[in-house]
Amino acid sequence: MTEIKSTVTYDEKVIQKIVGHALENIEGLLAVSGGFFSNVKDKLVNSDDVTTGVNVEVGKEEVATDLDVIVEYGKDIPAIAEGIKAIVAQNVEVMTHLKVVEVNVNVVDVMTREEYEASSVTLQDRVESGYETAKEATAAGYERAKEAASAGYERTKEAAQNAGEYISEKSGEAREYVSEKAVEAKEFTAEKTEQAKEFASEKKAQVKEAMSNDDEAVTYTATVDSDVVVAD
């Protein structure tokens, strides 16, 4: 049986997500700067993108990562860094079988939990704000669409009325025109009929006159012939 060769590779974003999710419950870690944050009062905050603040380099067998973090004031920072290193290595190696060779932690800020909570926007707040914004935008869009539809209806109604009036007006004009032409045709027909009668009567008289002339000519010829016979 032919051996099937295959390889598994990982996009950097995949490793970034694994690292980001691995950091959720590190005690004393308030945030990976600009991105994923640990639980604060049971709410995940600023969790739009778990990969922000997590930079990785992925090879065929090894992974290196750089983290920018915000640490809670008064906590043991080296211990937090060790906890980060351990949990990142464990999660990446279990899920990908890649060896984590570097976990570089860059502390960009320290804050008390109260300061951090006051400056953070919770995911719930963001969702509610987004919902209200979307709701307002939808309502505004509905009103604009409603107004546009109403205006369109009025324009269509007005155009239909104008068209009806125009058709009615033109229909009346057409009826008047047809009636006028019918009268003209009737008068023209009567006139031509009368002319035809007069012409026929005139021709009849001419024929009658011509026939009368022919009778006179026949009578004259007969008289002449009779005279000739007597002379002989």
From TrEMBL:
Species per Swiss-Prot/TrEMBL record: Streptococcus pluranimalium
Protein name: Stress response regulator gls24 homolog
Source species, domain of life: Bacteria
InterPro entries: Asp23 (IPR005531)
Family that this chain belongs to: Belongs to the asp23 family.
